[in-house]
Design goal:
Elements: E1 34-37, H1 51-57, H2 71-82, E2 84-89, E3 96-100, E4 111-117, E5 126-131, E6 136-141, H3 146-153, H4 158-162, E7 165-171, H5 174-180, H6 184-206, E8 208-210, H7 218-225, E9 233-242
Antiparallel strand pairs: 1-6, 2-3, 4-5, 4-7, 5-6, 7-9, 8-9
Helix pairs in contact: 1-6, 2-6, 3-7
Length: 245
């Protein structure tokens, strides 16, 4: 059979092509969630302004100070990794897509960003979900023994559980499948790399450190975020903290 440039066999039809409404651009809010509107990311004080310096000095960092992050820094990190620059019409007469600070195949952006917060000024410890459309945080609630659970879920890596904040990215695969069907799974993996690399560079610009974590328990990490493991599941995580300058 002839194959398209996305590897889909001729004759296969996506939900987009048969007129199924596109899935929401971000996960709907749960009733009663407390929302924290984040500061404008431009208010974060950058220690390094040159992209060449950030790329050159970027490296994985696993030793963090106990000092907390502040909301301005967190705002910049979140905007750098999933921030929405513009919402544009797309796909159908009523459809929309987001142009963000990272590339994504077909502008599908199939990820949700969760934060496991231990020490961030102005935030209660616990689990948060980022709303890129509103640039705000939604509080899911506290977790008993959060640091211990993070360590256990990340194959005993204690620096993960001890970090001031851990970025945890989940995937909602149908956001890509709606348009590209099974071929979407390949580009989702590629897109995850774009997101985490931006975190590395943004952290470097702020004088912070991070490290990409692929060694984690799927079951324990999904359970921590109360995900079903099928329609949504964790794909990547990265602790962030202060490091020696």
């Amino acid at each position: 059979m002839m194959r398209s440039h996305f590897g889909v066999e001729s004759g296969e039809v996506s939900d987009q092509n048969i007129g199924v409404d596109q899935p929401p651009l971000e996960k709907p809010d749960e009733p009663g969630m407390e929302e924290t509107v984040l500061p404008d990311p431009v208010t974060a004080g950058l220690q390094k302004n040159g992209i060449r310096e950030c790329i050159l000095e970027r490296k994985s960092r696993r030793k963090f100070f106990d000092d907390p992050l502040n909301l301005e820094e967190l705002s910049f990190l979140l905007w750098s990794t999933q921030g929405v620059k513009k919402v544009v019409p797309a796909y159908t007469k009523t459809g929309r897509a987001t142009l963000r600070t990272v590339p994504s195949a077909g502008a599908r952006h199939p990820f949700e960003t969760y934060l496991a917060v231990n020490r961030v000024e102005g935030l209660e410890p616990g689990i948060y979900r980022y709303s890129p459309l509103r640039h705000s945080l939604l509080y899911s609630g506290s977790v008993d023994g959060l640091g211990i659970r993070l360590t256990e879920a990340s194959a005993g890596q204690g620096f993960v559980g001890a970090a001031p904040v851990v970025f945890i990215w989940s995937c909602r695969p149908y956001l890509g499948e709606w348009r590209y069907m099974g071929e979407s799974h390949k580009v989702m993996l590629i897109d995850a790399g774009h997101v985490c690399q931006n975190l590395y560079l943004a952290a470097e610009a702020l004088g912070l450190g991070t490290v990409a974590i692929g060694a984690y328990s799927q079951e324990l990490m999904d359970d921590l975020l109360q995900l079903d493991g099928e329609d949504e599941f964790v794909v990547y995580c990265a602790p962030v903290g202060r490091v020696e300058s």
